[in-house]
Write a structure and sequence with these properties.
There is one protein chain. By secondary structure, the protein is mostly helical. The chain contains four helices and three strands. It has one domain: Multidrug-efflux Transporter Regulator, Chain: A, Domain 2 (Orthogonal Bundle). The model has no long low-confidence stretch (mean pLDDT about 85). The radius of gyration is 15 Å and the shape is globular. Helix 2 packs across helix 3. A hairpin with a 5-residue loop joins strand 2 and strand 3. The protein has a three-stranded antiparallel β-sheet with strand order 1-3-2.
C-alpha cells in the first residue's frame, strides 16, 4: 500500500504533457514529436492513451534532454 501511495504522489508531481507541450519545451514541431514518439531515434518516451492521444511525463522529457546532451558531448570528444 505504501508503494502505491508513493507512486501516486510521484505522478502528481510529475505532470503529463501533451505533444504540443513537448514541442514547445524542445523548440521543435509537433510533427517532430509525433515522429520521435513512434519510430525514429532518438526515441521520446511516450504514454499512449486508449483514445490514441499521446502523453509524456515531464521527468522523462528532461531525462531525454540529458541523454541527448551527454551523447552530443561524447561525440564532440571523439573528434
Amino acid at each position: 500500500m505504501a508503494l502505491l501511495q508513493m507512486q501516486d504522489r510521484a505522478h502528481h508531481t510529475d505532470p503529463l504533457l501533451t505533444a504540443e507541450d513537448v514541442a514547445t519545451r524542445l523548440n521543435v514541431t509537433r510533427d517532430w514529436v509525433w515522429d520521435h514518439s513512434s519510430r525514429r531515434l532518438p526515441y521520446l518516451p511516450v504514454i499512449r492513451m486508449s483514445d490514441g492521444a499521446l502523453r509524456y511525463r515531464s521527468s522523462q522529457i528532461e531525462a531525454f534532454l540529458s541523454e541527448r546532451e551527454q551523447a552530443a558531448h561524447l561525440h564532440r570528444r571523439r573528434r
